[in-house]
Design brief:
- The chain has about 130 residues and is an alpha+beta fold.
- It has a single domain (about 1-125), classed as Thiol Ester Dehydrase, Chain A (Roll).
- The protein is about 20% helix and about 40% strand.
- It has 3 helices and 5 strands; from the N terminus they run βααββββα.
- It has a 5-stranded antiparallel beta sheet.
- The longest helix has 16 residues, at about 25-40.
- The two termini are about 15 Å apart.
Length: about 130
């Protein structure tokens, strides 16, 4: 199952040449992950308030393939690769008109307020359920 999130490139996302600044791809995929989690029925604010559980990025492997530019309409695709009790691995791709611009493999972990590993909600371990 692939989750899709669309976003527009704004002037603030670009450098002087009108090309998306490299770190902003991480913002785009973060927004897409948040919407993916929301789509699974998980309220991250309630999860933190009720169970003290937060998500943290443990690792990102990224490839910058082609530049995105000011005013481009982008699609971020998010797909679950692997899941354990306290860790999930996602592949995320940023596309423009079907062309791959950026690809990342992201590892997320669940943490308690004290920074200790915590079990992830069942909906993340078994997407859709």
């Amino acid at each position: 199952m692939i989750h899709r999130f669309t976003c527009r490139v704004y002037y603030e996302d670009t450098d002087l040449a009108g090309i998306v600044y490299y770190a902003n791809y991480l913002k785009f995929i973060e927004r897409a992950r948040s919407e993916w989690v929301r789509g699974l029925g998980i309220d991250q604010a309630a999860l933190k308030a009720g169970e003290g559980l937060v998500f943290a990025v443990r690792r990102v492997e990224a490839d910058y393939l082609r530049p995105a530019r000011f005013d481009d309409l982008l699609t971020v695709e998010t797909a679950l690769v692997a899941a354990t009790g306290a860790r999930i691995v996602l592949d995320q791709t940023v596309l423009r008109d079907g062309a791959r611009l950026f690809a990342a493999r992201v590892t997320l972990v669940g943490l308690t307020a004290a920074g200790r590993p915590a079990r992830l909600p069942a909906a993340l371990r078994l997407p859709g359920g």
